[in-house]
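User: My notes are a mess, but here's the protein and flavin mononucleotide's SMILES. Can you give me a structure?
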Amino acid sequence: MIQTFFRRCMALVTLLAAASCSEGEGIEAKAQAPASMGKTLVVYYSFTNNVRTIVGEMTKQVSADVVEVQPAEEGLDYAANNYEIGSSLIAAIRNHPEDAESYPSIKPVDIDFQKYDNIIVCTPLWWSQMAAPMQSFLFQNGQKMAGKHVALIVSSASSGISSTVADAKRLIPEAVWTGDALWINDRKRSQTPTLLAEWLASQTFQTVTETMKMNITIDGQTQSVTLESNQAARELHEKLQEGPVTVTLNTSGGFEIWGALGFSLTSSDERITAGPGDVILYDDSNICLLYGSNTWSYTRLGKIDGLDESQLRNFLKAGERNIVAVLSLTSDATALNDLKVAKDSKDLIFNMKGQQVEQTPKGIYVTKGKKVAYNK
Ligand SMILES: Cc1cc2nc3c(=O)[nH]c(=O)nc-3n(C[C@H](O)[C@H](O)[C@H](O)COP(=O)(O)O)c2cc1C
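Assistant: No problem, the inputs look usable. Here's the predicted complex:
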Protein backbone atom coordinates (compact mmCIF):
# COMPACT_ATOMS: atom_id res chain seq x y z
CA MET A 1 0.00 0.00 0.00
CA ILE A 2 2.59 2.51 1.17
CA GLN A 3 4.88 1.26 -1.54
CA THR A 4 2.29 1.98 -4.27
CA PHE A 5 1.55 5.40 -2.81
CA PHE A 6 5.13 6.48 -2.72
CA ARG A 7 5.93 4.97 -6.09
CA ARG A 8 3.28 7.23 -7.56
CA CYS A 9 4.07 10.35 -5.53
CA MET A 10 7.80 10.12 -5.58
CA ALA A 11 8.63 8.64 -8.95
CA LEU A 12 10.33 11.82 -10.11
CA VAL A 13 12.32 12.31 -6.89
CA THR A 14 13.42 8.69 -7.05
CA LEU A 15 14.61 8.97 -10.61
CA LEU A 16 16.59 12.11 -9.87
CA ALA A 17 18.13 10.79 -6.67
CA ALA A 18 18.98 7.32 -7.98
CA ALA A 19 21.79 8.73 -10.06
CA SER A 20 23.63 10.09 -7.05
CA CYS A 21 23.10 7.47 -4.33
CA SER A 22 24.86 4.25 -3.54
CA GLU A 23 22.38 1.46 -4.29
CA GLY A 24 24.69 -1.50 -4.71
CA GLU A 25 22.84 -3.06 -7.64
CA GLY A 26 23.84 -6.53 -8.74
CA ILE A 27 26.15 -7.28 -5.84
CA GLU A 28 26.93 -10.97 -5.65
CA ALA A 29 29.95 -11.37 -3.43
CA LYS A 30 29.67 -11.37 0.34
CA ALA A 31 32.29 -9.09 1.81
CA GLN A 32 33.48 -8.57 5.36
CA ALA A 33 33.84 -5.35 7.29
CA PRO A 34 37.44 -4.64 8.29
CA ALA A 35 38.45 -7.08 11.02
CA SER A 36 40.21 -4.34 12.95
CA MET A 37 37.22 -1.97 12.88
CA GLY A 38 37.30 0.29 15.94
CA LYS A 39 34.58 0.40 18.56
CA THR A 40 31.33 1.03 16.80
CA LEU A 41 27.94 2.40 17.81
CA VAL A 42 24.82 1.79 15.75
CA VAL A 43 22.07 4.28 16.46
CA TYR A 44 18.72 3.76 14.79
CA TYR A 45 15.10 4.77 14.70
CA SER A 46 12.40 2.56 13.23
CA PHE A 47 8.63 3.07 13.02
CA THR A 48 7.50 0.06 10.94
CA ASN A 49 10.51 -2.23 11.64
CA ASN A 50 12.34 -2.01 8.31
CA VAL A 51 15.32 -0.23 9.86
CA ARG A 52 15.18 -2.52 12.87
CA THR A 53 15.54 -5.50 10.51
CA ILE A 54 18.48 -3.84 8.74
CA VAL A 55 20.20 -3.26 12.10
CA GLY A 56 19.56 -6.89 13.07
CA GLU A 57 21.30 -8.04 9.89
CA MET A 58 24.15 -5.61 10.33
CA THR A 59 24.99 -6.74 13.84
CA LYS A 60 25.46 -10.25 12.46
CA GLN A 61 28.26 -8.79 10.34
CA VAL A 62 29.90 -6.22 12.63
CA SER A 63 30.30 -6.11 16.35
CA ALA A 64 28.68 -2.91 17.65
CA ASP A 65 26.74 -1.42 20.52
CA VAL A 66 23.19 -0.61 19.46
CA VAL A 67 21.05 2.28 20.67
CA GLU A 68 17.44 2.81 19.60
CA VAL A 69 15.98 6.31 19.40
CA GLN A 70 12.39 6.33 20.67
CA PRO A 71 9.83 9.13 20.50
CA ALA A 72 8.83 10.41 23.95
CA GLU A 73 5.18 10.08 23.02
CA GLU A 74 4.31 6.43 22.52
CA GLY A 75 1.70 4.99 20.19
CA LEU A 76 1.56 7.77 17.59
CA ASP A 77 0.68 6.59 14.08
CA TYR A 78 2.82 8.77 11.86
CA ALA A 79 1.31 7.24 8.72
CA ALA A 80 -2.38 7.62 9.59
CA ASN A 81 -4.60 10.01 7.58
CA ASN A 82 -2.22 10.21 4.68
CA TYR A 83 0.88 10.56 6.90
CA GLU A 84 -0.60 13.55 8.68
CA ILE A 85 1.52 13.50 11.87
CA GLY A 86 4.71 12.54 10.04
CA SER A 87 4.18 15.30 7.51
CA SER A 88 3.60 18.00 10.09
CA LEU A 89 6.67 16.94 12.10
CA ILE A 90 8.83 17.12 8.99
CA ALA A 91 7.29 20.45 7.97
CA ALA A 92 8.05 21.96 11.39
CA ILE A 93 11.73 21.00 11.10
CA ARG A 94 11.94 22.15 7.48
CA ASN A 95 10.51 25.56 8.43
CA HIS A 96 12.80 26.19 11.43
CA PRO A 97 15.71 23.73 11.45
CA GLU A 98 17.73 25.85 13.93
CA ASP A 99 14.96 25.92 16.53
CA ALA A 100 15.00 23.16 19.17
CA GLU A 101 11.22 23.51 19.46
CA SER A 102 10.83 22.19 15.92
CA TYR A 103 12.07 18.75 16.87
CA PRO A 104 9.74 16.16 18.46
CA SER A 105 10.70 14.99 21.95
CA ILE A 106 12.54 11.70 22.25
CA LYS A 107 13.22 9.51 25.26
CA PRO A 108 16.53 10.40 26.92
CA VAL A 109 19.54 8.42 25.73
CA ASP A 110 22.78 8.22 27.66
CA ILE A 111 25.69 7.64 25.30
CA ASP A 112 29.37 8.06 26.13
CA PHE A 113 30.48 9.12 22.65
CA GLN A 114 34.11 9.11 23.76
CA LYS A 115 33.98 5.31 23.73
CA TYR A 116 33.28 5.08 20.02
CA ASP A 117 35.47 5.34 16.94
CA ASN A 118 32.64 4.78 14.45
CA ILE A 119 28.94 5.63 14.50
CA ILE A 120 26.48 4.14 12.01
CA VAL A 121 23.23 6.13 11.83
CA CYS A 122 20.28 4.11 10.49
CA THR A 123 17.07 5.96 9.71
CA PRO A 124 13.84 5.78 7.75
CA LEU A 125 13.10 8.48 5.20
CA TRP A 126 9.98 10.61 5.73
CA TRP A 127 8.85 12.85 2.90
CA SER A 128 12.36 12.67 1.48
CA GLN A 129 13.87 13.95 4.77
CA MET A 130 15.38 12.08 7.69
CA ALA A 131 12.61 10.71 9.96
CA ALA A 132 11.80 13.33 12.58
CA PRO A 133 12.76 11.38 15.76
CA MET A 134 16.23 10.66 14.31
CA GLN A 135 16.58 14.35 13.46
CA SER A 136 15.76 15.10 17.12
CA PHE A 137 18.49 12.73 18.27
CA LEU A 138 21.06 14.23 15.93
CA PHE A 139 20.01 17.80 16.76
CA GLN A 140 20.76 17.00 20.42
CA ASN A 141 23.89 14.89 19.87
CA GLY A 142 25.38 15.78 16.49
CA GLN A 143 27.99 18.12 18.02
CA LYS A 144 29.22 15.31 20.28
CA MET A 145 29.93 13.26 17.17
CA ALA A 146 32.51 15.77 15.85
CA GLY A 147 35.55 13.99 14.49
CA LYS A 148 33.91 10.56 14.64
CA HIS A 149 33.79 8.33 11.59
CA VAL A 150 30.10 8.42 10.74
CA ALA A 151 28.19 6.26 8.25
CA LEU A 152 24.56 6.55 7.17
CA ILE A 153 21.96 3.98 6.17
CA VAL A 154 18.59 5.17 4.89
CA SER A 155 15.52 3.04 4.35
CA SER A 156 12.71 4.30 2.12
CA ALA A 157 9.81 2.75 0.27
CA SER A 158 11.13 4.09 -3.01
CA SER A 159 12.25 7.72 -2.73
CA GLY A 160 15.86 8.69 -3.25
CA ILE A 161 17.85 9.75 -0.21
CA SER A 162 19.75 12.89 -1.19
CA SER A 163 17.70 15.17 1.12
CA THR A 164 18.16 12.75 4.01
CA VAL A 165 21.90 12.74 3.40
CA ALA A 166 21.77 16.56 3.47
CA ASP A 167 19.92 16.41 6.82
CA ALA A 168 22.65 14.18 8.23
CA LYS A 169 25.35 16.59 7.05
CA ARG A 170 23.51 19.55 8.57
CA LEU A 171 22.95 17.80 11.90
CA ILE A 172 26.46 16.26 12.22
CA PRO A 173 28.48 19.07 10.69
CA GLU A 174 31.88 17.84 11.82
CA ALA A 175 31.54 14.14 11.08
CA VAL A 176 34.24 12.32 9.16
CA TRP A 177 31.96 10.62 6.64
CA THR A 178 33.01 7.07 5.87
CA GLY A 179 31.69 7.08 2.29
CA ASP A 180 28.39 7.02 0.40
CA ALA A 181 25.23 6.38 2.40
CA LEU A 182 23.60 3.00 1.91
CA TRP A 183 20.08 3.26 0.49
CA ILE A 184 17.80 0.27 0.95
CA ASN A 185 14.38 0.63 -0.65
CA ASP A 186 11.52 -1.88 -0.84
CA ARG A 187 12.74 -3.28 -4.15
CA LYS A 188 16.14 -4.07 -2.61
CA ARG A 189 14.96 -5.14 0.84
CA SER A 190 15.36 -8.88 0.23
CA GLN A 191 19.04 -8.31 -0.65
CA THR A 192 19.77 -6.53 2.64
CA PRO A 193 22.48 -8.95 3.93
CA THR A 194 24.49 -8.75 0.72
CA LEU A 195 24.02 -5.00 0.31
CA LEU A 196 25.21 -4.49 3.88
CA ALA A 197 28.25 -6.73 3.49
CA GLU A 198 29.42 -4.93 0.36
CA TRP A 199 28.70 -1.48 1.79
CA LEU A 200 30.43 -2.19 5.12
CA ALA A 201 33.53 -3.29 3.25
CA SER A 202 33.49 -0.11 1.13
CA GLN A 203 33.38 2.36 4.06
CA THR A 204 36.49 3.90 5.55
CA PHE A 205 35.76 3.05 9.14
CA GLN A 206 38.27 3.93 11.82
CA THR A 207 40.39 0.87 12.43
CA VAL A 208 42.22 -0.06 15.60
CA THR A 209 45.96 0.26 15.25
CA GLU A 210 46.68 -0.19 18.92
CA THR A 211 48.90 -3.19 19.68
CA MET A 212 47.03 -5.78 21.70
CA LYS A 213 48.76 -6.98 24.83
CA MET A 214 48.03 -9.59 27.46
CA ASN A 215 49.83 -10.76 30.57
CA ILE A 216 50.91 -14.22 31.65
CA THR A 217 51.37 -14.72 35.39
CA ILE A 218 53.14 -17.86 36.64
CA ASP A 219 53.99 -18.33 40.27
CA GLY A 220 53.64 -14.59 41.05
CA GLN A 221 55.77 -13.41 38.12
CA THR A 222 53.94 -11.47 35.39
CA GLN A 223 55.25 -11.08 31.85
CA SER A 224 53.61 -9.11 29.06
CA VAL A 225 52.84 -10.65 25.69
CA THR A 226 52.47 -8.70 22.44
CA LEU A 227 49.57 -10.30 20.60
CA GLU A 228 49.40 -10.90 16.86
CA SER A 229 46.82 -9.04 14.80
CA ASN A 230 44.97 -12.15 13.66
CA GLN A 231 41.49 -13.46 14.38
CA ALA A 232 42.57 -15.95 17.06
CA ALA A 233 44.51 -13.29 19.00
CA ARG A 234 41.61 -10.85 18.74
CA GLU A 235 39.23 -13.50 20.06
CA LEU A 236 41.59 -14.29 22.94
CA HIS A 237 41.88 -10.58 23.77
CA GLU A 238 38.06 -10.27 23.73
CA LYS A 239 37.73 -13.32 25.96
CA LEU A 240 40.17 -11.81 28.46
CA GLN A 241 38.06 -8.66 28.60
CA GLU A 242 35.53 -10.82 30.45
CA GLY A 243 38.21 -11.66 33.05
CA PRO A 244 41.44 -13.61 33.53
CA VAL A 245 41.72 -17.19 32.28
CA THR A 246 43.62 -19.81 34.28
CA VAL A 247 45.25 -22.69 32.42
CA THR A 248 47.24 -25.69 33.65
CA LEU A 249 50.24 -26.46 31.46
CA ASN A 250 52.71 -29.35 31.21
CA THR A 251 56.21 -29.53 29.80
CA SER A 252 56.45 -31.44 26.55
CA GLY A 253 59.05 -32.19 23.89
CA GLY A 254 61.84 -30.25 25.62
CA PHE A 255 60.74 -26.96 24.01
CA GLU A 256 57.37 -25.92 25.44
CA ILE A 257 54.78 -25.97 28.16
CA TRP A 258 51.24 -26.47 26.84
CA GLY A 259 47.70 -27.33 27.77
CA ALA A 260 44.01 -26.77 27.09
CA LEU A 261 42.64 -23.22 27.01
CA GLY A 262 39.14 -24.42 27.90
CA PHE A 263 37.67 -22.76 24.79
CA SER A 264 38.34 -22.67 21.05
CA LEU A 265 39.68 -19.84 18.93
CA THR A 266 39.51 -19.38 15.16
CA SER A 267 42.86 -20.75 14.00
CA SER A 268 44.70 -19.92 10.78
CA ASP A 269 47.24 -22.73 10.95
CA GLU A 270 50.32 -22.77 8.77
CA ARG A 271 53.56 -24.68 9.02
CA ILE A 272 55.92 -22.43 10.92
CA THR A 273 59.02 -22.70 13.05
CA ALA A 274 58.03 -21.29 16.42
CA GLY A 275 60.83 -20.08 18.64
CA PRO A 276 61.59 -19.07 22.24
CA GLY A 277 58.92 -16.77 23.66
CA ASP A 278 56.28 -17.61 21.06
CA VAL A 279 52.75 -18.06 22.32
CA ILE A 280 51.03 -20.52 20.02
CA LEU A 281 47.52 -21.82 19.39
CA TYR A 282 47.61 -25.52 18.67
CA ASP A 283 44.61 -27.46 17.36
CA ASP A 284 42.16 -24.57 17.98
CA SER A 285 41.93 -24.92 21.75
CA ASN A 286 45.42 -25.45 23.23
CA ILE A 287 47.99 -22.85 24.21
CA CYS A 288 51.72 -23.53 23.92
CA LEU A 289 54.39 -21.33 25.52
CA LEU A 290 57.76 -22.02 23.94
CA TYR A 291 61.21 -21.77 25.49
CA GLY A 292 62.76 -23.70 22.57
CA SER A 293 61.93 -24.17 18.90
CA ASN A 294 59.61 -26.44 16.98
CA THR A 295 58.26 -26.64 13.43
CA TRP A 296 54.57 -27.56 13.15
CA SER A 297 51.23 -26.40 11.84
CA TYR A 298 50.37 -23.63 14.30
CA THR A 299 48.60 -20.31 14.69
CA ARG A 300 50.78 -17.70 16.33
CA LEU A 301 49.00 -15.83 19.15
CA GLY A 302 51.84 -13.58 20.26
CA LYS A 303 55.27 -13.35 21.81
CA ILE A 304 56.38 -12.98 25.41
CA ASP A 305 58.16 -9.62 25.66
CA GLY A 306 61.79 -9.21 26.58
CA LEU A 307 62.98 -12.56 28.01
CA ASP A 308 65.97 -14.51 26.70
CA GLU A 309 65.94 -18.30 26.47
CA SER A 310 67.27 -19.00 29.95
CA GLN A 311 64.93 -16.40 31.52
CA LEU A 312 62.06 -18.06 29.61
CA ARG A 313 63.00 -21.48 31.00
CA ASN A 314 62.83 -20.09 34.54
CA PHE A 315 59.63 -18.14 33.98
CA LEU A 316 57.86 -21.03 32.26
CA LYS A 317 59.15 -23.60 34.80
CA ALA A 318 60.54 -25.73 31.96
CA GLY A 319 60.57 -29.43 32.81
CA GLU A 320 57.75 -29.20 35.36
CA ARG A 321 54.15 -30.40 35.24
CA ASN A 322 50.87 -28.84 36.36
CA ILE A 323 52.15 -25.28 35.92
CA VAL A 324 49.35 -22.82 36.66
CA ALA A 325 49.38 -19.83 34.30
CA VAL A 326 46.94 -16.90 34.48
CA LEU A 327 46.25 -15.04 31.25
CA SER A 328 44.92 -11.50 31.76
CA LEU A 329 44.79 -8.01 30.32
CA THR A 330 46.77 -5.07 31.63
CA SER A 331 43.56 -3.51 32.92
CA ASP A 332 42.78 -6.56 35.06
CA ALA A 333 43.27 -5.99 38.77
CA THR A 334 45.80 -8.83 38.88
CA ALA A 335 48.11 -6.91 36.60
CA LEU A 336 47.94 -3.52 38.28
CA ASN A 337 50.76 -4.01 40.76
CA ASP A 338 53.12 -1.53 39.15
CA LEU A 339 50.55 1.19 38.51
CA LYS A 340 50.19 4.31 40.61
CA VAL A 341 46.87 5.85 41.56
CA ALA A 342 46.70 9.44 40.35
CA LYS A 343 44.66 12.12 42.04
CA ASP A 344 44.06 15.71 40.93
CA SER A 345 46.70 15.61 38.21
CA LYS A 346 46.55 18.75 36.07
CA ASP A 347 48.60 17.16 33.29
CA LEU A 348 47.15 16.06 29.99
CA ILE A 349 45.53 12.66 30.21
CA PHE A 350 45.07 10.20 27.37
CA ASN A 351 42.99 7.02 27.16
CA MET A 352 44.47 3.73 26.04
CA LYS A 353 43.67 4.64 22.42
CA GLY A 354 45.86 7.74 22.68
CA GLN A 355 42.90 10.14 22.70
CA GLN A 356 43.10 13.07 25.10
CA VAL A 357 40.31 12.94 27.68
CA GLU A 358 38.84 15.42 30.15
CA GLN A 359 36.85 12.92 32.22
CA THR A 360 38.51 9.90 33.78
CA PRO A 361 35.96 7.28 34.73
CA LYS A 362 37.50 4.23 36.43
CA GLY A 363 40.16 2.77 34.14
CA ILE A 364 43.72 2.99 32.85
CA TYR A 365 45.06 6.23 31.35
CA VAL A 366 48.40 7.60 30.27
CA THR A 367 49.75 10.81 31.79
CA LYS A 368 53.33 12.13 31.93
CA GLY A 369 54.25 9.11 29.79
CA LYS A 370 53.12 6.64 32.44
CA LYS A 371 50.13 4.34 32.76
CA VAL A 372 47.93 5.40 35.65
CA ALA A 373 44.90 3.74 37.24
CA TYR A 374 42.01 6.02 38.12
CA ASN A 375 39.72 4.63 40.74
CA LYS A 376 36.68 6.77 40.07
C1 LIG B 1 5.63 9.72 7.86
C2 LIG B 1 6.24 8.87 6.79
C3 LIG B 1 6.67 9.44 5.62
C4 LIG B 1 7.25 8.65 4.63
N1 LIG B 1 7.69 9.25 3.49
C5 LIG B 1 8.24 8.50 2.51
C6 LIG B 1 8.69 9.10 1.30
O1 LIG B 1 8.63 10.31 1.10
N2 LIG B 1 9.22 8.29 0.34
C7 LIG B 1 9.34 6.96 0.53
O2 LIG B 1 9.84 6.28 -0.36
N3 LIG B 1 8.96 6.37 1.68
C8 LIG B 1 8.42 7.10 2.66
N4 LIG B 1 8.00 6.52 3.83
C9 LIG B 1 8.20 5.08 3.99
C10 LIG B 1 9.44 4.76 4.81
O3 LIG B 1 10.53 5.56 4.43
C11 LIG B 1 9.86 3.32 4.61
O4 LIG B 1 8.77 2.46 4.76
C12 LIG B 1 10.95 2.94 5.59
O5 LIG B 1 11.50 1.72 5.17
C13 LIG B 1 10.40 2.83 6.99
O6 LIG B 1 11.37 2.39 7.90
P1 LIG B 1 10.90 1.79 9.30
O7 LIG B 1 10.06 0.58 8.96
O8 LIG B 1 12.13 1.40 9.99
O9 LIG B 1 10.11 2.84 10.00
C14 LIG B 1 7.39 7.27 4.83
C15 LIG B 1 6.94 6.69 6.00
C16 LIG B 1 6.38 7.48 6.99
C17 LIG B 1 5.91 6.85 8.25
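The chain has eight helices and 21 strands.
User: Great, I'll file this with my notes.
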